[in-house]
Design brief:
CATH class of the largest domain: Alpha Beta
Helix content: 25-40%
Radius of gyration: 23 Å
Strand order of the largest sheet: 1-6-5-4-2-3
Structural class: alpha/beta
CATH topology of the largest domain: Rossmann fold
Number of domains: 4
CATH architecture of the largest domain: 3-Layer(aba) Sandwich
Number of strands: 19
Length: about 475
């Protein structure tokens, strides 16, 4: 646990009303999942949530040192919050993925900095340093928090941010050390969560009627490699989750992100094909379409290796959508290397690609290298590859026109009279309906129009119970 200097004279918070908290999660889905556990602990301590920063007595950020834009947002927020301290009493904290260099700076700006591993100790840290907590006090039992400090933060029951979609972390940290990435330095080495805890959490979510569950980890398909004596790996975990779906007879989809191509095995795909609840979607980060750049990135696979995996996907899961991540403008990426990435876009026919312009991150190996690709060239390559993606994805979406697909309806659309949902393959679809009661449920939707990166449709009927488990 790392603490900044706290001015005890400013801890006499207003107790004439409930004490409120506000948390800003930044970065990846793992940070969102961590935020749900932080939320659980704070509410167990008696704090109440607010969506308005200016109403909060406790202000926090779940940071992301992996992305410079996220760090810039942290500084913007804390400077504003510290100005508010001149007018009222409040406490600030920061957690999440934080590089050592950022830690030193944050310690001077925030009242409290803690690692997510230290979350179970948070109530005691507040007590130890005289930080005021709400009158209702602390009920560790309800939050699953023990006082022996051996509890892992995964043991804390999260307060899920959605009543029908949930993140379930299965692994933390990374052993791959890609040269562009700082995650091994912010989250440490790979640690697999106990399979019993994962399966229990998934089982509870299914019983509560959750429709979409995403397994999270930096490299989910290396699950269990740090506990080889147990001989229980990602394929085994997926098998047991599939059995939960079969036994429950309930409709839900299970996703996972992100796998690493080096660790993707055929038996995982074969397991997915056996169980209807294991959704037909594969997010397989490519990063570059050139072997030389992949080697410089320390990705530990070749385009030929990646091609073999995609061949398995098309053979075993012919209806699966294929998503990827790509970086353009990596150091020493020449036009011929970028051409390889463009060719890979056409070859693999991705349904979606998250394309990023390379920027060096302190702590990552590549930060020590010269950033040889100009900003203008990066922008140009980003635009070109995005155009390629739009063309390729559009061709994929056109195949869905006229079909009736099961869709999970997630929210109201931006335009009045529409709802938004996603297909099993996580393709966004805009639905012509204003019936908000459909949100959080499955429906059969007739696709009326295909767009570059999405679909449009209309509700054909509600999904019959058990349809996804036995679609025939």
């Amino acid at each position: 646990m790392i603490l900044a200097h706290i001015d005890q004279n400013k801890q006499s918070l207003n107790r004439t009303r409930p004490l409120r908290y506000f948390i800003l999660p930044l970065g990846c889905q793992m940070n969102s999942s961590d935020t749900e556990r932080i939320t659980s602990v704070l509410e167990d301590m008696g704090y109440e949530p607010t969506s308005h920063e200016d109403e909060a007595d406790l202000l926090g950020v779940v940071s992301c040192s992996v992305r410079q834009k996220a760090i810039d947002r942290v500084y913007g927020r804390i400077h504003q919050w510290n100005k508010w301290k001149d007018k009222r009493s409040l406490i600030t904290f920061v957690s999440g993925c934080i590089l050592p260099a950022d830690e030193k700076k944050f310690l001077k700006l925030f009242d409290l900095l803690f690692k997510i591993d230290d979350l179970p100790r948070l109530p005691d840290i507040f007590d130890q340093y005289g930080m005021v907590t709400p009158i209702r006090g602390i009920s560790r039992k309800r939050a699953g928090i023990r006082t022996d400090f051996d509890t892992h933060f995964w043991d804390i029951q999260p307060k899920y941010s959605s009543p029908f979609q949930a993140f379930v972390p299965i692994q933390n940290g990374c052993d791959k050390f890609c040269t562009f990435c700082a995650v091994p330095y912010t989250r440490g080495r790979e640690i697999s969560r106990g399979s019993k805890d994962i399966l229990n959490e998934v089982g509870r979510l299914v019983e509560k009627g959750y429709k979409s569950i995403t397994l999270l980890g930096q490299n989910v398909n290396s699950y269990g490699h740090d506990k080889k004596e147990d001989a229980y790996f990602f394929k085994d975990l997926m098998e047991d989750i599939g059995k939960i779906g079969t036994a429950s007879k309930k409709d839900f989809w299970v996703y996972f992100t992100s796998p690493h191509p080096r660790d993707m095995t055929r038996d995982v795909l074969e397991t997915m094909a056996k169980y209807p609840c294991l959704a037909n979607n594969i997010h397989l980060p490519l990063q570059s379409g050139d072997d030389r750049i992949l080697k410089k990135m320390n990705r530990s696979y070749t385009i030929n290796h990646y091609e073999n995996i995609v061949r398995w996907v098309r053979e075993i899961l012919p209806l699966a959508t294929l998503f990827t991540d790509i970086i353009v403008g990596f150091p020493d990426e020449e036009e011929e290397h970028f051409l390889g990435t463009r060719q890979a876009m056409d070859q693999f026919q991705f349904h979606m690609a998250y394309i990023a312009q390379y920027s060096p991150r302190p702590g990552a190996v590549s930060a020590r290298w010269e950033d040889t690709v100009s900003a203008n060239t990066k922008k140009s390559r980003f635009r070109i590859l995005t155009t390629d993606l739009m063309r390729v994805a559009s061709a994929q979406n056109e195949k869905q026109a006229g079909k009736i697909l099961p869709v999970l309806i997630e929210a109201e659309g931006r335009k009045k009279g529409f709802l938004m949902g996603k297909t099993e393959g996580r393709i966004p679809i805009r639905i012509a309906s204003s019936d908000k009661s459909l949100i959080g449920s499955f429906a059969l939707v007739r696709v009326t129009k295909s767009l570059s990166l999405s679909l449009e449709g209309e509700v054909d009927s509600l999904l019959p119970a058990g349809f996804l488990q036995n679609p025939s």
